[in-house]
TrEMBL record:
Feature: compositional bias, Basic and acidic residues: 14-34
UniProt GO BP: proton transmembrane transport
Family annotation (InterPro entries): Atp1_alphaprobac, ATPase_put
Keywords, sorted A to Z: Hydrogen ion transport, Ion transport, Membrane, Transmembrane, Transmembrane helix, Transport
Protein's name in the database: ATP synthase protein I
Organism lineage: Bacteria, Pseudomonadati, Pseudomonadota, Alphaproteobacteria, Hyphomicrobiales
Protein's job: A possible function for this protein is to guide the assembly of the membrane sector of the ATPase enzyme complex.
GO cellular component, one term: proton-transporting ATP synthase complex
Length: 136
């Protein structure tokens, strides 16, 4: 018996494909719901995502303390080095003034690095140098 490709057979094959697509979509939806439930459960166990305003505020204070301590550390180290150089070399107050300014610059640079403001600039500069070397 030969298979006929009449309108009845074409509509049946379309119905079969539509049924398979619907079954696949239902399966995907079910897996997506299961994954969402498992993620919600793990987030609840780990305490992620549902933080209250106090924890977010504490995070902000922590970041502010880190940035300010890095800035102050740069100034203190620069001042200390300048004072030591002045005592050893007898160049008072010039070593202190110069290293205080260098410490201030180092403190600002550390804060910008920690805040992520200049990380891209450093990467961009190194890429530009590599590009120049490749062209030569």
């Amino acid at each position: 018996m030969a298979k006929t490709n009449g309108p009845d057979n074409a509509s049946q094959s379309r119905d079969n494909r539509a049924g398979a697509d619907a079954a696949r979509d239902d399966s995907l939806d079910g897996r997506r719901r299961d994954l969402g439930a498992r993620l919600a459960q793990r987030r609840a166990e780990a305490g992620i995502g549902g933080g209250d305003a106090r924890s977010r505020e504490a995070t902000g204070y922590g970041q502010a303390m880190r940035l300010s301590s890095e800035f102050i550390a740069g100034i203190v180290v620069g001042t200390g080095l300048g004072w030591i150089i002045d005592r050893v070399a007898g160049t008072s107050p010039w070593g202190l003034i110069i290293f205080l300014l260098l410490g201030f610059g180092a403190g600002v640079l550390n804060v910008l690095r920690s805040a992520g403001m200049i990380a891209d600039a450093g990467l961009r500069a190194s890429r530009d140098e590599q590009g120049k070397q490749d062209r030569d």
